[in-house]
Amino acid sequence: MTRRMFVIRVCVLLTMITGVNYIAWRWLDSIAWSAWWIAVPLLVAETYSLIDTGMFGMAMWRLKERGEPPAPPDDATVDVFITTYNEPVDLVITTAAAARDIEYPHRTWVLDDGARPDMRAAAEAAGVGYVTRSEDWTGKPRHAKAGNLNNALFQTDGEFLLILDADQIPDPRILHRTLGYFEDPKIGLVQTPQYFTNVDDADILGSQAPLFYGPIQQGKDGWNAAFFCGSNAVLRRDALMQLGIVGYVREVGSTVRRAIRTADTILARAAKEAPVDDPAVGRAITEVRVAARTARTELDAGEPFADVTYAFQRRVDDASTAVLREHADAIRADLAVIESIPVEVDAELGTLVVDEEAFDLLAHRELSPLGAIESVRTIASAINVDVAGEAQPIMPLATISVTEDMATAMRLHAMGWRSAYHHEVLAHGLAPEDLGTMLQQRLRWAQGTMQVMLRENPLLKKGLSVGQRLMYFSTMWTYLSGFAALAYLAGPVIYLGFGVLPVEAFGTDFFIRFIPYFIANQLLFLVVAQGVRTWRGQQYSLALFPVWIRACWTAFANVVMNRPLGFVVTPKTIEGEHKPPWRAVWPQLVAIVVLTLSVPVGISRLALGYADLGATLVTIAWVVYDLVVLSVIVRAARYRAQLTPTEVTA
Amino acid sequence: MNLDITEHGTTSAVLVLNGRLNLVSSPMLREAVADVIADGRTLVVVDLGAVSFVDSSGLGALVAGLKTARAAGGDLRMADAPEQVASVLRLTNLDRVLRVHPTVEAALDA
């Protein structure tokens, strides 16, 4: 063990021992039950934070510093994907040209989800490939960036894929520095850091994430759980395709089983609604019902889905053909409107000549009179193995979340693939340039993470190790911090304003437990961070509390109640005048005002003899801490990235 | 990989694969399936007897072929998979969707 690891582990142990000691005392012996309505939420928030710290400590325990990467293979084939939707053509082409000039042999592709003619022309001029969605996607769910990548996977054939956001300019050596890890055949993903060049030292918007693209990823890596972060990562195509196949099988299974479960109900209703003067339709519906039941029995017996659905489709076809044969008039009418089917008009009699082939074509469910019974048609088409609701049957990148990267990585890990975090900046990108954009981006990340947690909870997901479960869960857990923040902000205000203390007393009992925990915790951060600045991140984890709460709520409404998330692509450049988006941060501004006002109120109460000196001083210190943390929001709202020289001269 | 097409009757075709069905050769399979279906041979049997290796891209081509065949009202079936192929099918659970028929004849008659 290195000296650094030894010190980290000592700090982790100290933090956990002092933390458990403090929280246990808080639960057992400090709650002011008369003020339970604030005492209990505050203690729950503190317990939440200790669990958060515990999972952080667990990651740090196995912090993995990989150092020099292994040498790359000689003959790997690589596709470099640059994903874009609406970013300026110049920005994309700058990235594409840098990608084209990557030294390791490869092919470069611009994946333009906006299908812009000028983007295509620019890509061709730059000598890189250009990919847009195929026709299969027309009228189907597009699945944002995941859909864009899934589409490109079927138009290219490299063994490895380097994925870059439109603004992430790669280093020429990026593939040389990452491909070597794939010599281990179980490695499916290599992630490198994201680093932003349009950010100054102060980094008011907290764009650089040195703690995440550093100790946290290295810690997760130690548990074989380094995350995929959507850009600056290399993926093994075979691993992705395997995910796609497994996902396809799962999708077919759930679609077919769901359709068969509901078939009976829907077909029973269709039978009732069938015209009484048309026994053929009634008979056909009965036949389809019998077919659906047979299909269910066969599936329960473990027959493959393709066989079961094929037999089912045949029976539905037979049933519709039977109806057709009894409806010659309707068929003629159909034929008259369907010009695409070659039908000849008899020159002498003026009637249509319908041959067997045309009959077969008409028996195709969408065209037949039976197909007019919409519910039967829907059911029949859902009991199939073609996943007709999606553009392509195989979706290698997960589409269950707006953060497709995290969901994909978790599925890779669950399938037994390994990942590596290579801690070396190999691409330089652009961060959001104002608070509004930044808020939108953070909201999207948080929403996506919560979607994954609600749809595929890592604690329950098969195939993950205990460490991997906790590494994924801890990221999701951090996004619950918005609720804890409410308690941390309300606590001091309630004492200073109303004299209600959530703790029995801020006496010696409190301090001898709290101070060691606080110090050990800060020490752990200090040792882990090794000089990188983590204060901005700490500020935002509290200061963005409304964003985290909104993300939890909207993700819940989306997953459980099928409401839309209101997903917006993060713009990379901003046009027009800059106005501080005060409205977007009103909860923080209210909190700042209330916290500030609580101080004179508290001092007045102390002067009038209603309050205790010690408690007032501790609470004011608490308010000052909250205000210092929240103040970043005011600075961020007023902030705008420095104009680039070209903009100044323009 | 080599790919030979033999026609059976008016509505069926057998694709005999030989070699490695992987990301390099899978487009060939996808195109062959699309071609025979465009010719009206909607029951496609893929003979895997001489396939030495299949990867996930190869499986992807089989699934894409299945979708194409079903869309045309037909079917795609596999026959005679060697152990490596069968084990990849099990690993990905694709054997839950597609049956491997013991022989081409059995696949055509199923």
TrEMBL record, chain A:
Record Gene3D superfamilies: Spore Coat Polysaccharide Biosynthesis Protein SpsA, Chain A
Matches recorded under InterPro entries: Cellulose_synth, Glycosyltr_2/OpgH_subfam, Nucleotide-diphossugar_trans
Family matches, as SUPFAM superfamilies: Nucleotide-diphospho-sugar transferases
CDD domains referenced in this protein's UniProt entry, alphabetically: CESA_CelA_like
GO molecular-function term, one example from the UniProt record: cellulose synthase (UDP-forming) activity
Membrane topology: Multi-pass membrane protein
GO biological process, one term: cellulose biosynthetic process
Pfam families, per database record: Cellulose_synt
Localisation: Endomembrane system
Main location as per UniProt: membrane
Record's protein name: Glycosyltransferase
Organism annotation: Sanguibacter suaedae
Automatic annotation (TrEMBL), chain B:
GO molecular function: anti-sigma factor antagonist activity
InterPro entries the UniProt entry points to: Anti-sigma_ant, STAS_dom, STAS_dom_sf
Pfam families per the UniProt record, alphabetical: STAS (PF01740)
Span of domain STAS: 14-110
Cross-referenced SUPFAM superfamilies: SpoIIaa-like
Domain of life: Bacteria
Coiled-coil segments: none
Gene3D superfamilies for the chain: STAS domain (3.30.750.24)
Matches recorded under NCBIfam families: ant_ant_sig
Protein family per UniProt: Belongs to the anti-sigma-factor antagonist family.
UniProt-recorded name of the protein: Anti-sigma factor antagonist
